[in-house]
Amino acid sequence: MKKNKITVSQVLKTLFIGLVIFILYLPIIIIFVLSIDTSRTGNTFTGITFEWYKEIFTNKSLYMSIITSFAVALSATCISAFLGTFAAIGIHSLSKKAKEKVILLNNIPVLNAEIVTGISIMIICSVLIPIIPDFFGYWTMLIAHVFFTMPYVILSVIPKLNELDPNLYDATTDLGVRPFKALWKIVIPSIDTGIISGSLLAFTLSIDDFVISYFTSGNGVTNFSNWIYVRLGRRNFTPAAYAFNSLLTIVILLIVLVPAFKKNKKRTGKN
Amino acid sequence: MKKFKYLSIPYIIWLFILVVLPLIAMLVLSFMDSDALDLSTAKFSLDNWASLFNGVYLNAFYNSLKIAGIATIVCVLIGYPISYIISNSHLKNKFALIMVLILPMWSNQLLRIIAWEKIFYPISIINNIGLSFDLIGTDFAVIFATVTMYLPFMILPTFTVLEKMDKSYVEASYDLGVSRPRTFFKITLPMSSKGIMSGVIMVFLPASTGFAITERLGGGKIVMIGNIIENFFKRSFNYNMGSMLSLVVIMVIMGAIVLLSKFDKEGETII
């Protein structure tokens, strides 16, 4: 620190950012308060209890919806990461004009309204109901989630492929390595940061998805967001949902922020 | 790597099945009078399109554009200064602060909406600390919740663009005696416009087509186009009207995508 003077503008800037952080975290604080409130409706604060935290493990429909959320998000992320990487390599190898067209098509699921994406997949999957009667549920949600997460993987991988030196691949194959082995040993390791960031984005979007799953879930199989939505204001809603969300938020805050601030400490330590 | 072209073919087919086919299905449905997806009793009908200019739908479109428009402007006015302040600050760990601002997104979006709903009713848990609001059914409540929901989507791209920007242009401008505001408007703002643009898209599109916020905070008085489409598909099972309105939404978004592709050929602004 060179200057120890604190200017008015610095104070205003800090207050501004502090206020925005407060407003962004206010709903999270309220969800936490509701999770320890004895009142089931959450309209008044009547006392502190941890009963709802226990109910996460006893309310079957709730924990099944949580398991579905994770199962769909994990499998959709793996499929999108794997197939998306190969699709991105394919798109990258196209001629410039064809590439632009495919990327435009790839942008449609990203930019399209979630409600339209949800309805589109619902209509297409409905066609298959006569063949597979109980189709709606896990599988339709999985198709939908792969559909809307894969474009993000592709968009994260393509810039990395653009950075890649094409001679690297050519040199490998010239030395007699078979094309797919060259892809696996040379290309994939060079674009892994793109695959990882795309997968993280895919998982984040998938786990919290509400609208698309709303239209593609069915037969009693639903995810956490939709479990909440259909029970809002009804008797079968339980504050255990607040409890689960609070636990998850705290875990994520710790996972993300502790390393971020630790890195900072290390750096200042060196200085 | 040209020989990997064929890897893009399965993905193109997949996109055709899940993007183009549903569009055709919706187009057919919108010109019909059918019992949901049962086409055995379906008749050709122009009634759906004729009713597009019905006051209810026009009002819903107007509400969507107004609420999302105001929310997007507020997000720019709050999000851009935050990114600018953090990017130009002397903080050791700017990235950790940005993470703090983005993390609320990992808390379930529906529960965050419910948290606002809980405190916007006159009788609420904040009565215990002497506060009471009566905001359900007001534009303010809906816009406020929309801003808190999508602000991180504005902060992330604007911060990324400001961090990547070559700051030597700004220094050169100061060295040449150009004032701070003029430097900002002539150099920083134009150089970060791409980030603002992707932020605007990432806020405006979901904000204008969502239905959960108006459903919970609109008190039945504020109806957006998403609420009407959701109602047609999930409650009254009028797929014909729902398809017609979805197509109108798609056309508006397509226009936006084409406009975007003029600026950005490789889809880089989206992530």
Write a structural description.
The complex is a heterodimer of chains A (271) and B (271). Helices cover 75% and strands 0% of the residues of chain A. Chain A has 271 residues and is an all-alpha fold. Chain A has two domains: 1-59 and 239-271, no CATH class; 66-237, MetI-like (MetI-like fold). In chain A, 39% of the residues are buried. Chain B is mainly alpha-helical. Chain B has a single domain (55-263), classed as Orthogonal Bundle (MetI-like fold). A two-stranded antiparallel ribbon of chain B has the order 1-2. Chain B starts with 7 loop residues before the first helix and ends in an 8-residue tail after the last helix. The model of chain B has no long low-confidence stretch (mean pLDDT 85). Chains A and B meet through α1, α3, α4, α5 and α6 of A and α1, α3, α4, α5 and α6 of B.
Q: In the CATH hierarchy, what is the architecture of the largest domain in chain A at level 2?
A: Orthogonal Bundle
> Most extensive chain contact?
A-B, 95 and 93 residues
Q: End-to-end span of chain A in angstroms?
A: 12 Å
Structural class of chain A: mainly alpha
Give the helix tally of chain B.
Answer: 12
Neighbour order of strands in the largest sheet of chain B: 1-2
CATH topology of the largest domain in chain A: MetI-like fold
Chain oligomer state? heterodimer
Name the CATH superfamily assignment of the largest domain in chain A.
MetI-like
| Residues in helices of chain A, as a percent range | over 70%
User: What count of structural domains of chain A?
Assistant: 2
What is the average per-residue confidence, as pLDDT of chain A, rounded to a whole number? 85
- Give the domain tally of chain B: 1
For this structure, the CATH topology of chain B is: MetI-like fold
What is the number of strand segments of chain A?
A: 0
Cα-based radius of gyration of chain B, to the nearest Å: 23 Å
